[in-house]
Write a structure and sequence with these properties.
The protein is mainly β. It folds into 2 domains: 30 residues; 146 residues, no CATH class. It is built from 1 helix and 10 strands; from the N terminus they run H-E-E-E-E-E-E-E-E-E-E. A hairpin with a 2-residue loop joins strand 4 and strand 5. 32% of the residues are buried.
Length: 204
């Protein structure tokens, strides 16, 4: 389906200094977002060779489960990550940005939503992150629990003997993360804006 036939998402789409060579990547992201919204995309897919930024002013959830795993790109290269399983996630806003090398220079794909338009929400959000920074509050926490016994977020379990942690209700302010993948169901992105720019600004 061409971009012209797709109904507009909530909010608006802004294009500045658009690089034509990035169009296939944008369409692929649109298809991925659609699958994520239907809950049809599993966390176990080959990741691209580029990590991306994720930022939010505040993230809240009724549960968190996490363990270490290795994501692999199509060339077989491994990327160690902390798999973060988040129950019903609510974000005050969200910014996602990836820098991609192209024949015409470095292109930044940037997606933003939330803020004045309203909260961003997602169910069963899974982020494969290589780092995470923020000010956190956990209602309860279990650190060092066997990953195969995690039960705070449905469907989020690791292999037996793996290090794991989980928490009850959580709140993280000033979220900053570099991630290799993010999946989830029933995404609601109020005030969605997508920008593809040469040498554009990233989230942080």
């Amino acid at each position: 389906m061409s971009a012209a036939k797709q109904p507009p998402a909530e909010g608006r789409t802004a294009w500045k200094k658009t690089a034509v060579v990035a169009t296939p990547a944008v369409l692929a992201v649109g298809v991925m977002a659609s699958l994520m919204g239907q809950g049809a995309l599993a966390a176990s897919f080959a990741v691209s060779g580029t990590s991306f930024q994720v930022a939010s002013g505040k993230l809240t959830s009724q549960g968190l489960s996490s363990y270490v795993q290795t994501d692999r790109s199509a060339d077989g290269k491994g990327h160690p990550v902390a798999l973060l399983g988040i129950g019903d996630a609510r974000l005050s806003d969200i910014c996602q940005a990836a820098e991609v090398a192209t024949p015409v220079g470095k292109v930044v794909f940037k997606l933003t939503a939330g803020g004045e338009a309203g909260e961003v929400t997602a169910s069963s959000l899974v982020i494969d992150a290589e780092d995470l920074v923020g000010d956190a509050r956990f209602g309860t926490a279990q650190i060092g629990r066997d990953a195969s016994t995690l039960d705070q977020v449905p469907g989020i379990k690791g292999g037996a003997g793996k290090f794991g942690l989980q928490a009850g209700d959580i709140e993280v302010a000033g979220v900053r993360s570099h991630a290799w993948s993010a999946t989830g169901g029933n995404f609601r992105l109020k005030g969605l804006s997508i920008d593809v720019s040469l040498d554009g600004e990233k989230c942080f």
